[in-house]
């Protein structure tokens, strides 16, 4: 099958990495760093008692909440900034100042404002993911080919209809790209926030495993699970790129 042929090179590379990892641990006779088998056994241990699912659920809930609020805020604002020149000139400098600030730098302020509950990581995820979506959405409107707008105007299309049936569909590929970038950053930030300010989630699981008896098998397990979930989330966003209403603007 086609997908198996495409996946085969990646699977071979992963198998080689696992083999090298296993060989390195055995040859160095490390008493701390785990083998792949020990990582699998530690993962199964957490899965059986339900701890793993609790941590995964907590992290996904925070990402869904923060990212969802960011989508509701960023996309309408980005469309408005792209469509109305005055809004772009007024707001773009502010966002360009805030955008380079690392989301991790907001952690002390988030704790000060929201405490150490779920509100802090949700706020951090919002801050991390909102700016890429605003920038990409605005750029999507700015890069619309003028012939689309002129053609619609020649047919006497109203401004509201032009916005809904021409501007938004034309900007949709860039919007999806912004969402994909924002979701990736959100997943990074929630893990970092959980390591510092929370008592649940995959980030907390890694720190707690390190502190509670040097369980590096669980530390590595947490890292791998974070990577796999990140891959799954990116795959979901890539499915959106394959939608008919999105693919039409791409060359390939």
Whole-number mean pLDDT: 84
Q: Unreliable stretches, pLDDT < 50, 5 or more residues?
A: none
Share of residues in helices: over 70%
Helix count, per DSSP? Answer: 11
* Gross geometry: globular
Gap between N and C termini, in Å? 22 Å
Instruction: Return the string of H and E elements.
Output: HHHHHHHHHHH
Biggest sheet, in brief?
A: none
**Alpha-carbon Rg, integer:** 22 Å
Question: What structural category arises from helix and sheet content?
Answer: mainly alpha
Which percent band covers the strand fraction? under 5%
What's the number of extended β-strand segments?
0
Would you mind describing this structure in some detail?
The radius of gyration is 22 Å and the shape is globular. The two termini are 22 Å apart. The longest helix has 39 residues. The chain has 252 residues and is mostly helical. It contains 11 helices and no strands. The mean pLDDT is 84.
């Amino acid at each position: 099958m086609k997908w198996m042929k495409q996946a085969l090179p990646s699977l071979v590379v992963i198998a080689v990495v696992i083999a090298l990892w296993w060989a390195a641990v055995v040859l160095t006779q490390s008493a701390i760093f785990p083998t792949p088998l020990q990582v699998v056994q530690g993962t199964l241990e957490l899965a059986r008692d339900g701890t793993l699912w609790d941590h995964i659920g907590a992290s996904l809930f925070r990402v869904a909440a923060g990212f969802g609020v960011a989508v509701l805020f960023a996309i309408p604002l980005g469309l408005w900034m792209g469509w109305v020149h005055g809004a772009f000139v007024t707001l773009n400098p502010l966002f360009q100042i805030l955008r380079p600030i690392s989301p991790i730098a907001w952690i002390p302020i988030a704790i000060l404002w929201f405490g150490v509950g779920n509100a802090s990581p949700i706020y951090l995820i919002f801050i991390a993911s909102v700016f890429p979506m605003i920038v990409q959405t605005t750029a999507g409107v700015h890069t619309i080919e003028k012939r689309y707008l002129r053609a619609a105007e020649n047919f006497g299309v109203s401004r509201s209809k032009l916005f809904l049936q021409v501007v938004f569909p034309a900007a949709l590929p860039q919007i999806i790209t912004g969402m994909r970038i924002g979701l990736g950053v959100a997943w990074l930030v929630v893990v970092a926030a959980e390591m510092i300010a929370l008592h649940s989630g995959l980030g907390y699981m890694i720190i707690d495993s390190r502190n509670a008896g040097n369980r590096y098998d669980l530390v590595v397990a947490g890292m791998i699970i974070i990577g796999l979930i990140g891959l799954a989330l990116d795959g979901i966003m890539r499915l959106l790129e394959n939608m008919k209403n999105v693919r039409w603007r791409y060359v390939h």
